[in-house]
Amino acid sequence: MTDDRITQNAAAVAQRELSTLVERTPGSKALFARAVKTMPGGVASSFQLGDPYPIYLERGIGPEVWDVDGHRYYDFHNGFGTMAVGHANPIVAEAIEAAARNGVHFAVTVERTVALAEELCRRFKVDQVRFTNSGTESNMTAIRVARAATGRDVIAKIEGSYHGHVDQLMYSVLPGADVMGGRDTPAATPKSKGVPAEMAEWIRIVPFNDASAVERLFEAEGSKIAALIMEPVMMNIGIVVPQPGYLEAVRELCTKYGVVLIFDEVKCGGTIAPGGAAERFGVQPDLSSWAKSIGGGTAIGAFGGRAEIMDQINQGAAHQGTYNGNPLSVAAAYATLTRVLTDDAYDHLGRLGARLAAGLGKAIDEYGIPANVVDLGCKGCVTYRSEPLTCYRDFLETNTQLYEASYPWMVNRGVFMTPGDEEQWTLSIQHTDEVIDRYVDAFGEFCAALTT
After folding, report:
1. 141/45 same-domain check
2. Res. 420 pLDDT band, cuts 50 70 90
3. Can the peptide bond before residue 52 be classed as cis, meaning omega within 30 degrees of 0?
4. Last residue within a domain, chosen from 340, 364, 384
5. Is pTM, for the whole model, over 0.85?
6. Quick check: helix, strand or coil at residue 324?
7. Number of independent structural domains in the chain
């Protein structure tokens, strides 16, 4: 069957499945009508928006969640990559309960904060760390420290990447084809209203998987550039894996030109390997940022790296935060990293990820769907493009209509997914073969429906 015919079928599937979704979720519809009166879009974060409304959840246990209508789902959303431990993990819950009974906040460093810092340094092979409350805060402060260390102001980032909603990094985040500039000269287009136009003076954009573009930029402006911040694996357009030699070349160029290399490991740190992307691909940045799964579901972030760069905090590079390293979050994070996300856990996640990717790939091949699967153990995705993505511009070639049909299809069959074709699944250590096979079966039925 031709791709055009599959796309036509997808439109019909999407219409039918959305109608079914609305029929089976009156509780979410009612809560949405209530929520929009007090929250823009009816949600706490714009990432939580849904069409025609979000599915509101009530509780989660292990690999499962229940919505406000009482429907049970196997969870592959997992809090946008936060819940690698699974829901209500007993080890994490015990740590949170103990912290709650002993004081959740002092705005004073406690022993467990020190222990967590030691564990992060060990796991990610860095000299020193500081704590924050989110990935946005971690990246924001890493940028400040890099500027202080170099005495430079300009920041380079990857085209199409997202590093949090701080103004200075909200450029070239999923730009449309009409505003993204040429392939060799990507534009620094702001993602959001309310960002001063003058801030574009301090940002430069390069494509992912193109070390030559980085070299050209550094040759022209290296003396102005404080840092290159990048996800070593792009995870805001599905998943884009670095091509062989790319990260190594970027590392060499940053060293040559005195540019601080920052790995944004908010999504991949703690998920794709015990030591994140730095371990998996064998390239060590100057600074890294972490959040999401390191906290076992609590609000925590961190950044860290070489001691001489982190020492800028002692020399006037400001880093504050009332809740930084609070006892509740560090207790959950310490339990997560030392007792839950162990080497055995990553073996389990790797096996499950391979099982899921193999099952989905088989269905794609059997029915001739223009799609491909990326497997990174705990993380993975289906991208509706025949060839794997290498950069943001490839993402613009994906068939969004296939995704728009797949989301309600999977949700209606008990598989809870992230809203948006730019996202990916997250497995938890509480997922089982049964959970994986339910996803595979539902996806196989979806592929069959597209070609019927």
Report:
1. no
2. confident
3. yes
4. 340
5. yes
6. coil
7. 2
Distance set, CA 184 to CA 187, 207, 378 (Å): 10, 8, 34
Contact between 129 and 202 under an 8 Å Cβ cutoff? The reply is no
The answer on 298 and 427 residing in a single domain is: no
Q: How confident is the model at residue 184 (pLDDT cuts 50, 70, 90)?
A: confident
Contacts 24+ apart (CB under 8 A), 310-316: 310/127, 310/128, 310/129, 310/130, 310/145, 311/128, 312/145, 312/148, 312/149, 313/130, 313/145, 315/148, 316/148
Q: pLDDT value at position 156?
A: 98
Alpha-carbon distance of 128 to 117, in angstroms, equals 8
- Regarding whether 139 and 101 lie in a shared domain, the answer is yes
**Catalytic residue IDs:** 162, 264, 292
Which residue's structure tokens are 């979410």? 28
Cβ pair 131, 313 in contact under 8 A: no
Query: How far apart are alpha carbons 171 and 166 in whole angstroms?
Result: 10
- CA dihedral sign of residues 231, 237, 241, 247: negative
pLDDT at 77: 97
Instruction: Calculate the dihedral angle through the C-alpha atoms of 215, 216, 222, 226, rounding to the nearest 10 degrees.
Output: -70
String of b and e for 1-33 (b: at least 16 CB within 10 Å)?
Answer: eeeeebbebbeebbeebbeebeeebebbbebbe
Q: Do 85 and 270 meet the contact criterion of CB atoms below 8 Å apart? A: no
**Residue linked to tokens 């049970």:** 72
Answer with the residue of higher pLDDT: 178 or 317: 317
For residues 350 and 330, state if they share a domain.
Answer: no
Could you give the CA distance from residue 82 to residue 77 in angstroms, rounded to a whole number? 9
Distances (CA, A) of 393 to 107, 175, 214, 396, 427: 45, 10, 17, 5, 27
Q: For 145-164, how does the pLDDT look when each residue is reduced to its tens digit (9 = 90+)?
A: 999 999 999 999 999 999 99
Asked if residue 149 and residue 245 are part of one domain, the reply reads yes
Residues of the chain with pLDDT > 90: what percent? 92
Domain CATH number, residue 373: 3.90.1150.10
d(CA 275, CA 369): 35
Distance from the Cα of residue 265 to its chain's centroid: 8
239-287: per-residue pLDDT in tens?
Answer: 999 999 999 999 999 999 999 999 999 999 999 999 999 999 999 999 9
Looking at every residue in the chain, the average pLDDT score rounds to 96
